[in-house]
């Protein structure tokens, strides 16, 4: 049995992984909730937020082997106490709300002092090329500043392809670069051969559990590569299942120009945005992510694939056919 602490435990991806850990019936899970009330912004589709909106741990779902625990993230001594006997700490902070990664660094210091063996910073997205594209996706700046122990890097969530149907319990999806429901795609010109890694939330959660149980040394960079697919292959896949895309082509030069005119967009507080400002930010975020994808930021590595060779990852073609194969726009919602 391993004792695992989850920081920012109410974020959507954290909840998915907590459920999977509980299902194993092997581990003791400490889910940390903030003592200070933080109301989440809406909509929350793009940002993996720390949506702790109550001070009472009893309000959260009670599961065998899971303890919801209040913590003061500003109090290192409190963190050290909470980490006693913990082997692994997984962090899910929204890095854009942690200036200078002060809270994550405090977590690391507390983990070292408490004798924690393993720490995973709040990565769970882009790969090692992120540092070169912070001009396009500046809200991820904190992901390249924290001390490295193992960095789970997963590419993009494949589950976005199912929108508006639900294939996860907690993750909120949105129509992203390839919108199968409305048969629309947004692609940067000249990127048909560019590779993007798409990984299901189910695979991410499964690998995280296996990583906690892995007896070898964790890699400093922990790529989780679900399905490596080019943009051209995605367009052909739409045709193959009878849902061809109408493509909106964007020019990379235009995206670069927009990026240069958007200085300061990484220094925002989602709590203060109006609905119209949020809409503008989501559009900005989409275009920034497309630019980052064209630079290879989401073509993450496959360290955990190689360390766990027996694990079979969901492939995009199989996933899309399961959700959309033979469906019309008016079909009933899929459940998996």
TrEMBL record:
Mind giving the lineage of the organism this protein is from? Answer: Eukaryota, Fungi, Dikarya, Ascomycota, Pezizomycotina
Q: Which SUPFAM superfamilies match?
A: NAD(P)-binding Rossmann-fold domains (SSF51735)
Q: Where does the source fall among the domains of life? A: Eukaryota
The NmrA-like domain sits at 3-218
The UniProt family comment states: Belongs to the NmrA-type oxidoreductase family. Isoflavone reductase subfamily.
What protein name applies here?
Answer: NmrA-like domain-containing protein
In Gene Ontology terms, what is one molecular function of this protein?
oxidoreductase activity
**Which InterPro entries does the annotation name?**
NAD(P)-bd_dom_sf, NmrA-like, NmrA/Isoflavone_reductase-like
Keywords attached to this Swiss-Prot or TrEMBL record, sorted alphabetically, are: NADP, Oxidoreductase
